[in-house]
Specification:
alpha/beta; Alpha-Beta Plaits; GMP Synthetase, Chain A, domain 3; Rossmann fold; 8 helices; 24% helix; elongated
């Protein structure tokens, strides 16, 4: 390959000019030879481009630069938004996070740092790292479209496969209560596959509003009937007859055990409860026996990681 040989005192100026001309070879290292500097180039400069500097074009063999290993930080992509967790800052700077994610996903328009999930509605505390400060976007799951607002309603894109699994297990004709529905992930997946009746309920009014918008976004694909509700799950016995439902979905992992009597009241005999809960591997079975001893256990599945050694699990429980 070729290098520009230039006296040391002209090196900085020459490097700037070569970079401006886009002919400097950045894959190889600049070296020194006595009082001269050897600058690798991709092609020779035109005669008049460096005419004011005493240079010489020579054959050279400079060492190649070691390519820096780029580590993509742990993140979620929601529509055109990237979200990284705060613990990423333990090993990456904000600038490196932005640079890496923008290079990996050229079409994203916003990068947020998620500090925590807070409040009874489990909404994210977000810090803008780059882009437009707008947490609302459209996210796709299996061809279904979901409007998401990350600051107003809980949403986790890593549950996409879980939404589909539950939907595929449901059946035509079932009456299902999605008791903590959020923006409608489980509900809309089920209604898109089956002629079932699904009650979509959440305590967060913004989540319910987004759920209704998501019904409209997917209306051409919905086969079942969806009934949106905004109520405290503890009040369900006040409004519904006992043993009315074939299936109850309880996706509120931190406190799902507190509603055991509500699930029992709502489900008919042999009805199925999809219970989501937090636990380590060693405490998982004890949790189910402690709070759901009167239920028949059909199976337990690890859904996603939550924290070091703690996971979100789904227990499929049958009312005897």
């Amino acid at each position: 390959m070729k290098c520009i040989e230039v006296p040391k005192k002209y090196a900085e100026r020459t490097i700037k000019l070569l970079r401006a001309l886009h002919i400097m070879d950045n894959e190889h290292i600049i070296t020194r030879k006595n009082d001269h500097v050897l600058i690798p180039v991709k092609k020779p400069p035109v005669n008049n481009e460096l005419s004011s500097i005493p240079i010489r074009l020579i054959i050279c063999n400079p060492p190649a630069k070691k390519k820096k290993e780029v580590k993509v930080p742990a993140h979620d992509i929601v529509g055109d938004i990237a979200v990284v967790r705060e613990n990423v800052l333990e090993y990456m700077s904000r600038e490196d996070i932005v640079e890496t994610l923008r290079a990996t996903y050229p079409r994203i328009r916003t990068i947020y740092l998620k500090k925590r999930t807070e409040g009874e509605f489990r909404v994210a505390d977000l810090e803008l790292l780059w882009g437009i400060d707008n947490p609302s976007t459209i996210h796709k799951e299996y061809g279904l479209r979901f409007k998401v607002d990350l600051r107003r309603a809980y949403y986790n894109p890593r549950l996409s496969e879980e939404h589909r699994r539950i939907a595929e297990n449901a059946k035509d004709g079932e009456i299902i209560f999605d008791l903590f529905s959020g923006i409608g992930g489980f509900t809309i997946h089920i209604a898109s596959l089956h002629k079932a009746t699904v009650l979509m309920n959440d305590l967060n009014p913004y989540a319910v509003r987004l759920g209704v918008e998501n019904i409209l976004l997917n209306k051409k694909r919905i086969r079942g009937t969806i009934i949106p509700l905004h109520m405290d799950a503890l009040l369900a016995p006040k409004y519904f007859r006992a043993e009315r439902f074939d299936r109850v979905i309880a996706n509120i992992p931190r406190s799902s055990y507190l509603f055991e009597e509500i699930y029992w009241y709502l489900l008919r005999s042999k009805g199925i409860l999809h219970l989501y809960f937090l636990s380590s591997i060693s405490e998982r079975d004890g949790f189910i026996k402690r709070y759901f001893a009167r239920w028949e256990l059909a199976g337990v599945r690890k859904v996603i990681d939550y924290a070091p050694y703690v996971f979100i699990w789904r227990a499929d429980l049958i009312k005897p």
